[in-house]
Structures are given as structure tokens and as C-alpha cells.
Amino acid sequence: MSFVPVCGPEGPLRVTAASAARRPAAVRAVLFDFSGTLFQIGAYEDRIRAALADPVDDATMDRLLNGLEAGLSHPDVIEAQRARDVSSKAHRHAFTTWYASVPELAPCAEALYEQLRAPEQWLPYADTASTLARLTQSGLPLGVVSDVGWDLRATFAHHGLDRFISAWVHSYEHHTEKPDPLLFRHACRELGADPSETLMVGDHPAKDGGAAGAGLRSYVLPAGAAPGSLRGLDAVLRLAGLLSA
């Protein structure tokens, strides 16, 4: 395995003749984030209507969604998010605390969380399957590195995508979160890939982009893509040298 050289404020402290002449290594393995990168959960409107016993009109739904938005800045919710992905218990607490910050949703906070864990609630982006298939057909091993509170294999299997993934790194199983180098390096070891030849793809600049601190390359997608839409994963194929620019 290769490691990141010691750098000062302007660059590497030591530059050898070998490193100066070296070309960037080809991408030989790809790691993906889960939520917001390969999958997105279904619309909150649909989830709330399924969880509540009584019908919800549009005005009420708008008020509930406004409440969830406001809840993100509530001190109790903010505190619950700290280290939320280091254990299943912390993950559940973080989300149920947020849901319960809206009084009308408090009674169904656990039901909303169970939706979050349900494979059928998650939708692959329109270009997820084709991208994973193309990378696999080209011989590149793939892994998932996700800050999450449950095992994602069932979700991928529900959509027939588990066959493409050879390494699964769930933060809660390692009691840490991205961008901890431990997670990225563990995935590389699982795939038998050198970090310098591995690409991490995600949607969070600090967490997924932080893979660079472990010696990987990273590609960060813009956040906010709608469930089921094209995610722009063709860029990954280009970075892997499978499509021309």
C-alpha cells in the first residue's frame, strides 16, 4: 500500500526523482458512497403519508415539511447528529430525535426510521445499474463505504445490485465515520487495491472528498439530485478511462 507523502503548506517536503517522473496511476478499483450517490430515499411526502393514520392535505404536508426543516437547527437535533454514524443506536437516536421535533410526527418517529431502513424505500438513480455493470464488466472491483447505521446488503439485493459489490464498509461496524482513513483503507484491503489506484465517489465534500487524506482519489457529485433521476455517474466511467472525455 502507498501512503500520502508528508506535505508542508505548499506541497511535499521531499520530491524524489521517481515521484517527479511518475504518471498518475490508472484507476483499478472504485468505492461508492450510498445515499445521495447510488441511491436516494423516496419522497418525504410519501413516507409521511404512509406513516400517519389520517389523510394529510397539501397545506398540512407543507407545514410538516417546514417543521422538519426548522428542526434541523434545533439544539437537541443538532446534538443528536454528533457521531450519529458510529453505532446503530446513535443512528436511530439521531433520526428519531429529528422526526420527533415536529409534534405531529413524534408518535410515528420510529415508523419513519423503520422506513429509512427498508430496502423498498430506496430508489437507485437512473444511471446506477448501468454504471456499476460497466465498471464490473471492465474488471474493476467495487466497494461501498457508507456512513450508515444498518447493513446495506439487503437494499442492494432488493434492487439486484449486490452482485456488483465486493466490499462493504459500514461506519457503524467500525465505530467511526468518514473521513476517517480507517474506512477507506479497510475497503481497499478488502478489494486488494492500492489506495493510489482507487477512486472514491460520493456527494459530501468533507466526508467523501476526505478519501484523499487516505491516499485515494475522490470525485464529489453535487448534492440534491431527485430520487430516480440521472446522477451523472458517466463521469465515473470517464475517470476510470472507460469513456472518452
Automatic annotation (TrEMBL):
InterPro entries: HAD-like_sf (IPR036412), HAD-SF_hydro_IA (IPR006439), HAD_sf (IPR023214). GO terms for molecular function: hydrolase activity. Keywords: Hydrolase. This is HAD-IA family hydrolase.
